[in-house]
Amino acid sequence: MNIEDTVTNRYSKALQESSPELCCPTSYDPEALSFLPDEIIEKDFGCGDPSRFVQEGDRVLDLGSGGGKICYMAARIVGPDGFVLGVDMNPDMLSLARKYQQEMAEKIGGDRVRFHRGFIQDLALDVEKTDFFLKDHPVRSTDDWLAFQSWQEEQRALYPLIPDNSIDLVVSNCVLNLVRDSEKERMIREIVRVLKPGGRIALSDIVSDKDIPDHQKNDPELWSGCLSGSFREDRFIQVLADAGLQAIRIESWGEAPWQTVEGIEFRSVTLTALKPFGTDCFDQGHAVIYRGPYQEIRDEEGHVFPRGERIAVCERSYRTLMQGPYRQDFIGVPPEKLQDPRECCTPSGTKRSPEKTKNGRHETATPSKDCCSPPSVSGEKEDDHDCCSHTE
Fold first, then answer.
1. How far apart are CA 389 and CA 209, in angstroms?
2. Are 324 and 282 in contact (CB under 8 A)?
3. What are phi and psi of 43, to 5 degrees?
4. Per-residue pLDDT tens for 253-308?
5. How many CA atoms does the CB half-sphere of 145 hold within 13 Å?
6. Three-state secondary structure string covering 91-146
7. What are phi and psi of 273, to 5 degrees?
8. From start to end of the chain, where are the E strands?
9. Which residue, among 298, 281, 308, has the nearest Cα to 390 in the 3D structure?
10. Among the listed residues 176, 91, 83, the one whose alpha carbon sits nearest the alpha carbon of residue 128
């Protein structure tokens, strides 16, 4: 039996009988659960609560949505201007989630949840549509197989299940570990693909503190139990960074391991991160102030932020620092009047003078011919440089 069949069978079986080994104890706001059907609550298998990162108006994607618990909780939060999509491969789980769609729509005041059958490592392919295609075009030869592959590529390109840059927040709750190791990086790339610039992730899953040996990875019970397919704790963070995500933050960390197998500790964590707004730098007079408590910090792009100083940033960096987990660490200081954008920014650590933004005034320096001053040391003043290029 392959991995996919093992996982599908185990979770379908869990719908029929108690399976506490598939649940890592998680605290939820009782009020947030009060409107959900008992069957959905009882048949929920997870290790965290990513719903607390949902915001009003969000378009949310839940990977491995199961019985729909997180989707319905999110739908209540996003309100009439938001929407929630759930993707899962298990037909029985999808049936449970869809069973309560009308009831949930009436309770939350809107029909704003949809469930799709799909692979979370291939969010462009609609599996239910694929099933219909195969009924009419069964694969009986190599030529049939090649035609099927061509059809799949056409579907991904022209009719993706989840389009590029369409999602504000991707959440998951203990499902990433069920994807084959060889496809995990593809899965993360798919998450980045569907996120809007500035979009966020909130991923709850189990991580290991050591490398997992092959004999554990080949154990169906350990794999389908979300253990032996775990990311190593530091590797989970690194694979998100390698995919281009920023502001990666450990939001929760299980103090005690959920399980220990042969000396390897498996614990629940929740990570959040942002998709950058792109690479263009336009200086329009923005500044930020790092609140502390550290003397200074440095971001992924090498920008230095001393505590308590008005530091000049480009418009893109300003938007990034006003999003997600950055917001609690920075005070935004927008110019009262935006200067004309110029394709460069001040060197890292450059202070923005308050006098240049008071009463709607902002003095615009004339860009130098090559716009390529090197990054400065922390504390240089804005007057010291006309312009600088920003190296990505």
1. 41
2. no
3. -105, 35
4. 998 998 999 999 999 999 999 999 887 888 888 999 999 999 999 988 889 999 99
5. 3
6. HHHHHHHHHCHHHHHHHHCCCCEEEEECECCECCCCHHHHHHHHHHCCCCCHHHHH
7. -165, 170
8. 59-63, 83-88, 113-117, 167-173, 195-208, 231-232, 246-253, 259-261, 264-274, 287-290, 296-298, 304-306, 310-312, 330-333
9. 281
10. 91
Inter-residue contact 81 to 57 (CB < 8 Å):
yes
Write down the residue that tokens 């998709």 correspond to: 275
Q: How far apart are CA 303 and CA 187, in angstroms?
A: 29
Measured between alpha carbons, how far apart are the two ends of the chain, in Å?
Answer: 46
Determine the Cα angle at 18 with ends 16 and 19, to 5°: 110
Helix, strand, coil shares of the chain as percentages rounded to 5? 35, 20, 45
Radius of gyration of the chain (CA): 24
SS3 at position 24: coil
Q: What is the tens place of the pLDDT at every residue in 99-116?
A: 999 999 999 999 999 999
343, 298 Cβ separation under 8 angstroms: no
- pTM for the structure as a whole: 0.84
Residue 360, token pair as written in the block: 């709607």
What is each CA distance from 114 to 87, 127, 152, 334, in whole angstroms?
A: 9, 15, 22, 39
161, 125 Cβ separation under 8 angstroms: yes
